[in-house]
Amino acid sequence: MIETDIVTRNVKPITLLLAEPRGFCAGVDRAIQIVEQALKKFGAPVYVRHEIVHNRFVVENLEAKGAIFVEELDDVPDDARVIFSAHGVPKSVPAQADERKLFYFDATCPLVSKVHVEAERHFEAGRDIILIGHTGHPEVIGTMGQLPEGAVTLIETIADAENIVPRQPARLAYITQTTLSVDDTAAMVEVLQRRFPDIEGPHREDICYATTNRQAAVKAIAPEADAMIVIGAPNSSNSMRLVEVAERAGCAKSILVQRATDIDWSLFEGVNRLGLTAGASAPEILVEEVIDAFRQRFDVTLEPITVSRERVQFKLPRALMD
């Protein structure tokens, strides 16, 4: 009899329910390409005001290629090239860049720019503007910064919508951050429309297609999953909303991790079916990393759950397309 050193492992099976779509959206992909193309065309360093997207893996990868991330333009040398993040910036930022004659690219997501245009349209029409969003989020700061101080009032909750007292109740409009909970936002809009029947809304909803699609995929998975992992950053609004959506859709054990190394494996004892998704600023390589980590500990079966297909692409600035 010939002995072998082959050992059969007794590994527990687990099914990973893979959300589709997940991960990078078109706006994030465009913003990262802008940084990479600027580095390729002009060489390092290229300065980026604020994290280009909310993901440390992405930021550190771009830093390794020569990007320097700063919070304010004061930290950018006079002869440097600078890029504004995907979240959008107040008008004062490009104005300061123009004053200093800085060479800059605006990587603001086109769907965020759409909200900026709506805000200006309402302001020019003499309407008071209500913005549904999260205090301190860069996108909210950028949107409110499109107009004079006081022109936009921020609300965050249904209670805010019930209690807000606008100066012109008959001349009112609302806009929203692009990365909110679809259900929470709809509830706030319903309150505003009940209280102010003539309120103007966007021609097409402001919550972006990617946020909507990723939340829909999580809603499809959550009732079938014993637990859910969302890959994303804690300062990523769209990623945090996915955790909340999963919990509300019936998956009480839903957690956010930035990378596979963050996983607390004790949480997955007794889990047979695990939902897995990624926020719009999390690259697919981090999803693969988590799947590989599970394969090292479980007998993994992958089961894609597809709710939609995304084919959206945004063009790069012309100066970077050569």
Descriptive labels:
single chain; 322 residues; Cobalt-precorrin-4 Transmethylase, domain 1; Rossmann fold; 4-stranded parallel sheet; 10 helices
CATH superfamily grouping of the largest domain: 4-hydroxy-3-methylbut-2-enyl diphosphate reductase, catalytic domain
N-to-C SSE series?
EHEHEEHEHEHEHEHHEHEEHE
Main sheet: strands, sense, barrel: 5 strands, parallel
Second-tier CATH architecture of the largest domain: 3-Layer(aba) Sandwich
Q: How would you write the strand order of the largest sheet?
A: 10-9-11-1-12
Radius of gyration (CA) equals: 22 Å
Structural class: alpha/beta
Distance between the termini: 68 Å
In the CATH scheme, the class of the largest domain would be: Alpha Beta
How many domains? The number is: 3
Kindly state the mean pLDDT as a whole number? 95
Helix content range of the residues, please?
25-40%
